[in-house]
Amino acid sequence: MSNNLLKGKKGIISGALNNMSIAWKVAEKAYEQGAEIVLTNAPIAMRMGEIKELSAKLGNCPIIAADATNEQDIDNLFNQSMEHFGGKVDFILHSIGMSPNVRKGRHYTDVNYEWYRQTLDVSAISLHKMLATAYKKDALNDWGSVVALTYIAAQRIFPDYNDMADAKSLLESIARSFGYHYGTSKKVRINTVSQSPTVTTAGSGVKGFDGFINYSEAMSPLGNADAEACADYCVALFSDLTRYVTMQNLFHDGGFSITGVTQNVVERFASE
User: Fold this and answer.
1) Predicted local distance difference test score (pLDDT) of residue 165
2) Span 121-143, mean pLDDT?
3) Of the candidates 192, 15, 175, which has an alpha carbon nearest to the alpha carbon of residue 96?
4) CB 1 within 8 A of CB 233
5) What is the mean pLDDT of residues 29-49?
6) Considering the chain, what is the average pLDDT of its residues?
7) In whole angstroms, what is the distance from residue 127 CA to residue 82 CA?
8) What is the domain range of residue 102?
9) Considering the entire predicted model, what is its pTM?
């Protein structure tokens, strides 16, 4: 149902690969709420994914290929987006993450450091590059909103999350630091959303994911939040209803992050 929360707003959505992607759901929800969208992803991801199908659903919105680790690509992304919109951008979703060490099964105590650098560059430093480019170009409207997707492994140990945990910690720090500088100069707010484990192409590549998602469900008073619910939350953060929320890491996880133990889990161990 549309309440036109984003009517008249224009945004860039990164990371939509297929209909399992959180970014895909966010794009759909933002469009439903009245926003104009530009889609972007790395060239290789665009060849692998189904982003043209999403564009068609969003009124044939532009798709701009951009490697988020490449400053020239990011510069071009903002130039083309502002040309398309005829002005500045109101919101950005950073939904970018990749770890070669996770993909190739390297243990955290024995990572390939070149791959480790790639993990940090793709999954975290890319946010800094996007924000720095937008800042220099004055590409975001006053009271604009940036949301980056993260995970609780940035604060707590989840062994199989590997070097992605380090990347998410850096991502959250970048959001806080840029949130200050962008907030004082342009009233732009920057937040991270720490989502429940979600069945996506990227998430399901983590070792032991199926078992963990079941555990998280049992440990969350409201149950795991799905991708569609996360998209609703992101839309709220893009909207004017959250104008004074910034520099926060916001848990969208059914209560998992604040729950010590649930009766369900206790009973499972008591029965052994």
Assistant:
1) 97
2) 98
3) 15
4) no
5) 91
6) 93
7) 19
8) 10-270
9) 0.94
Residue 3 domain-assigned?
no
Classify residue 223 as exposed, middle or buried by CB count within 10 Å of its CB (0-12, 13-18, 19+): middle
CA atoms within a 13 Å half-sphere pointing along the CA-CB vector of 83: 8
List the structure tokens of 47.
């060849």
Q: Which of 270, 193, 202 is nearest to 16 (CA)?
A: 202
Pairing state between β 249-252 and 63-65: unpaired
- Alpha-carbon distance of 270 to 39, in angstroms, equals 50
- Residue with the two structure tokens 């997707």: 149
Taking the C-alpha atoms of residue 138 and residue 126, their distance in angstroms, rounded to an integer, is 18
Model confidence at 168, in pLDDT bands (50, 70, 90)?
very high
For the domain that residue 212 is a member of, what is the CATH number?
A: 3.40.50.720
Q: Tell me: pLDDT of 205 over 60.
A: no
Instruction: Tell whether the model's pLDDT for residue 203 goes beyond 70.
Output: no
- Is residue 90 in a domain? yes
- Residue 201: per-residue pLDDT: 61
The CA distance from 32 to 26, in Å, is: 10
Contacts of 164 (CB under 8 A, 6+ apart): 97, 99, 102, 119, 123, 151, 153, 206
Q: How many CB atoms lie within 10 A of CB 157?
A: 8
CA distance 236 to 155: 24
> How many domains does the chain contain in total?
1
Question: Does 100 fall in a domain?
Answer: yes
| Backbone torsions φ then ψ of 107, nearest 5 degrees | -70, 150
Residue 1 within a domain: no
